[in-house]
Amino acid sequence: SILNAFRFLQLDLPNLVPLSCLFPMSFFHKLMLRTLIPVLICGSLVGVGRLLRRWRPPQTVAPDHPLPLRRFVAQLFSAAAFYLIFLVYPTTSASIFQFFVCDAFDEPGENGQRFLRTDFSIDCDGQDWWDWMPYSVLMFLLYPFGVPLIFLGLLRKNKHQFLDRNHPNHKASRSKYGFLIDDYSDNCYYWEPLEL
C-alpha cells in the first residue's frame, strides 16, 4: 500500500535496533523505548545546544557575516531535536494509542476477557496493564497532545521573525520553521501543528 512505501520516513526506534534478539521484549518495553529514547535524545541535543550558546558571551557579528561555529552547531543541535520529534511523532503516537485498544472476547462460549489488540498475551484487566496505565497517560499527554502544542507555542512565539521579512532573523527562522509553515499562507502559519 502507499503507507508502506513511505514507512522508512517514520523513525521506529525499537525496530531500528532489534533488542528483542538480546532479551524478551513485551509491548510495554517497546512502548517505553519508543517514548523515552526520543525524549532523551532531544533533551541531550537541546542541552548541548544551550551549553554551546552560553559557553562564551556571544560575539557581535555583522548581519552579513557568517555565524561563529559554536552558534551554528548550537542551532544545528536544536534543529535536529525539532526534526527528530517531528519524525518519531506518528509512530510514537500510534504506539501510545495502541495501549488503550483492547478487544473483548464476549461472544457465546467466551469468558469476556479483554486483551490488548496488538499483543494478545496482555490482559487489559490484568495488573501489568494497570501498572503501565499512568505511564501511558503521561506519554499521551506528552506526545499526541503535547507535541502539537509545543510546535504551536514555538510558532506563535517566533511568528514575528518568520513573518516579518525585514526582521534580522527572518532567514534563519524561516529555514528553521519552514517545514511547518511553507505550505500555508502567512495568516495560517499555525495550521500544521493543528493537523498533527
Number of helices: 7
Q: Could you estimate the helical fraction of the residues in percent?
A: 55-70%
Number of strands: 3
Q: In percent, how much strand structure appears in the residues? A: 5-15%
The span between the termini is: 22 Å
Model description:
The protein has 196 residues and is mainly α. Helices cover 62% and strands 6% of the residues. It has a three-stranded antiparallel sheet with strand order 1-2-3, covered by helices on one side. It is elongated. The mean pLDDT is 81.
Give a nutshell description of this structure.
This protein is mostly helical. It has 7 helices and 3 strands.
SSE blueprint and pairings:
Blueprint: H1 2-5, H2 13-16, H3 27-54, H4 69-99, E1 102-104, E2 114-116, E3 119-123, H5 127-163, H6 170-181, H7 191-195
Helix pairs in contact: 3-4, 4-5, 5-6
Keywords for this entry:
mainly alpha; 62% helix; elongated; 196 residues; single chain
